[in-house]
Amino acid sequence: MAESYDQFETGEIEIRVRYPEVDQMGVLHHSRYWIYFEMGRTELLRATGLTYRDIEASGVFLAVSKCSCKYIASAFYDDVLILKTMVTKMGAARIDHAYELRRKEDGMLLATAETTLACVGRDGKVHPLPDSIRKYNQD
């Protein structure tokens, strides 16, 4: 599932574009990319043996504090996409991810993106990343 990416983790998931995710022209709406990126992060975390549900239950939350996306080409209804999600940097209280979204059929790069997640406690204040999350980069 996950493979080594430098000292961090990387993973891929397959996503089929569903009808409610497209506009009247059959093009994947730009807002849906962010849902896909979250799916990629969630599955990458799951590949390390953790679930986001368990992390939240322990009182730790990973809040998106920064995000950017470059839309390169369109995805269409019923396209099968491959999302590659990579942990690119880990700090004391943050995790940076990068994403590449491609159409499976022709390998066309559709979008690249980056997010920064801040680790916070139930009170919303910055909290150090727990050791259980740090195992992301201990391969």
Can you describe what's shown?
With 139 residues, the chain is an alpha+beta fold. The protein has one domain (3-137): Hotdog Thioesterase (Thiol Ester Dehydrase, Chain A). 19% of the residues lie in helices and 42% in strands. The protein contains 3 helices and 6 strands, in the order ββααββββα. It has helices at 32-47, 52-57, 131-134, and strands spanning 3-5, 8-16, 60-71, 80-90, 94-103, 109-121. Strands 1-2-4-5-6-3 form a 6-stranded antiparallel β-sheet. It is elongated, with a radius of gyration of 16 Å. Mean pLDDT is 91; it is low at 1-6.
Keywords summarizing the entry:
139 residues; alpha+beta; Thiol Ester Dehydrase, Chain A; six-stranded antiparallel sheet; 3 helices; disordered N terminus
CATH architecture label name: Roll
Order of strands, widest sheet = 1-2-4-5-6-3
Q: Strand portion, in percent?
A: 35-45%
CATH topology: Thiol Ester Dehydrase, Chain A
Number of domains: 1
H/E element order:
EEHHEEEEH
Q: Helix count?
A: 3
Superfamily at the CATH H level?
A: Hotdog Thioesterase
- The overall strand count is 6
Task: Outline the low-pLDDT stretches.
Answer: 1-6
CATH C-level category = Alpha Beta
What profile does the largest beta sheet have? 6 strands, antiparallel
- What's the pLDDT, averaged over the residues? 91
Radius of gyration: 16 Å
Taking the alpha carbons of the first and last residues, their distance comes to 14 Å
The residue fraction in helices comes out at 10-25%
